[in-house]
Design a protein that fits this description.
Shape: globular
Radius of gyration: 21 Å
Order of helices and strands: EHEHHEHHHHEHEHHHHH
Structural class: mainly alpha
CATH class of the largest domain: Alpha Beta
CATH architecture of the largest domain: 3-Layer(aba) Sandwich
Largest sheet: 3 strands, parallel
Number of domains: 2
Number of helices: 13
Oligomer: single chain
Bound molecules: tryptophanyl-5'AMP
Length: 346
């Protein structure tokens, strides 16, 4: 893989944002603050076209119960809309309804190298000790992810910190394709990993990220948690006995406190410094209820809107079909040109 960042070729491309979330069940506060909320901000900024995807083909790289996958895909669509994604201003769709992802994914399977894939920390983490028994799809996962992004010639990809290595691989695939075929066809996409909450940590163990797959429900806040559950989980979140410091330096060596401050900052659209300026000297007994109130105020309207939207499944399916149509308008000519470059007769 390349060690040095190549000169950007982005200026020749339409400014376009792409990002995706797996419909593998249960959105967490980490997904909301690290991804969805930032997707909405990028949509509202109006500086880029915005394309957002439910990546069901990525979800099935590990076993998914079919009925759950279908329900989770619709629920994720409802979650996007409830969080503020406007299916008119953004393109919102489901990956498997746009076959160009799989088609470009195959070409990228032939560009990417086995060695690149085997270095991916998420592959190692998710395959665990029994790699021989993991699906081939799980190994090839990052090549499909590169296809998701590059089939739209996306220039910017907002994600949480955990996706950084996959985005570096996406850049490597774009560069290798361009070099192999002597073209400047795929953009060398920029990851956008910004803000206070690019790595929201578990409420029980600050060395682990907040995750829907953590066996402990107390470790995370789910977007579907009610006000009581949210308040209880924050009250029980692991902390230290010290009062809050005045400055960020004072949070060094205090990862639990840092995590709660970051969560507050991201929910309130403030910097961590501003939050500390307000709460310097406060004990957690005072800060935690304020954080719980803020989280409930921001999340309760999202979960009730999700529940409302989920009652009209035909409307969700209509929106997804329309989103897929719009996505294909961009993806089809890019795939066609890719096939020509590779020498595949169309
Ligand atoms: P996924 O479904 O695991 O997570 C979706 C998004 O949520 C972010 N995220 C977090 N951010 C901060 N703190 C956390 N604790 C946290 N947990 C999750 C993730 O970083 C991600 O942005 N491989 C991707 C999905 C994908 C994709 C793509 C993303 C497929 N194709 C193309 C971008 C572009 C994934 O598994 O995300």
């Amino acid at each position: 893989m390349s060690d040095t960042a190549p000169a950007s070729n982005l200026e020749k491309f339409t400014p376009r944002v792409f990002s995706g979330i797996q419909p593998s069940g249960g959105l967490t506060l980490g997904n909301y603050l690290g991804a969805m909320k930032r997707f909405v901000d990028m949509q509202d900024a109006g500086t880029h076209e915005t394309v957002y995807c439910m990546v069901d083909m990525h979800a099935i790289t590990v076993w998914q119960d079919p009925a759950d996958l279908a329900r989770n895909t619709r629920e994720l669509c409802a979650g996007f809309i409830a969080s503020g994604i406007d299916p008119e201003r953004s393109i919102l769709f489901n990956q498997s309804q746009v076959p160009e992802h799989a088609q470009l994914g195959w070409i990228f399977n032939c560009v990417a190298r086995m060695g690149w894939m085997s270095r991916m920390t998420q592959w190692k983490d998710r395959a665990g000790k029994n790699q021989q028994n993991a699906s081939l799809g799980l190994f090839a996962y990052p090549a499909l992810m590169a296809a998701d992004i590059l089939v739209y010639h996306a220039t910017h990809v907002p994600v949480g910190e955990d996706q950084k290595q996959h985005l570096e691989l996406t850049r490597d695939i774009a560069i290798k394709f361009n070099n192999d075929f002597g073209v400047d066809f795929f953009p060398v996409t920029e990851p956008v990993i910004e803000g206070a909450a690019t790595r929201v940590m578990s409420l029980r163990d600050s060395s682990k990220k907040m995750s829907k797959s953590d066996p402990s429900d107390a470790s995370r806040i789910n977007l579907t948690d009610d006000a009581d559950a949210i308040a209880k989980k924050i009250r029980k979140a692991k902390t230290d006995p010290e009062p809050l410091p005045e400055t960020l330096e004072g949070l060094e060596g205090r990862p639990e406190a840092r995590n709660l401050i970051n969560i507050y900052a991201a929910l309130a659209d403030q910097s961590a410094e501003a939050v500390l300026a307000e709460y310097a000297g406060a004990q957690f007994g005072q800060f935690k209820p304020a954080l719980a109130d803020l989280a409930v105020a921001k999340l309760a309207p999202i979960s009730s809107e999700m529940a409302r939207l989920m009652q009209d499944q035909p409307e969700i399916d209509r929106l997804l079909a329309r989103g897929a149509e719009r996505a294909r308008e961009i993806a089809t000519p890019i795939l066609k040109r890719t096939n020509e470059i590779v020498g595949m007769i169309g």
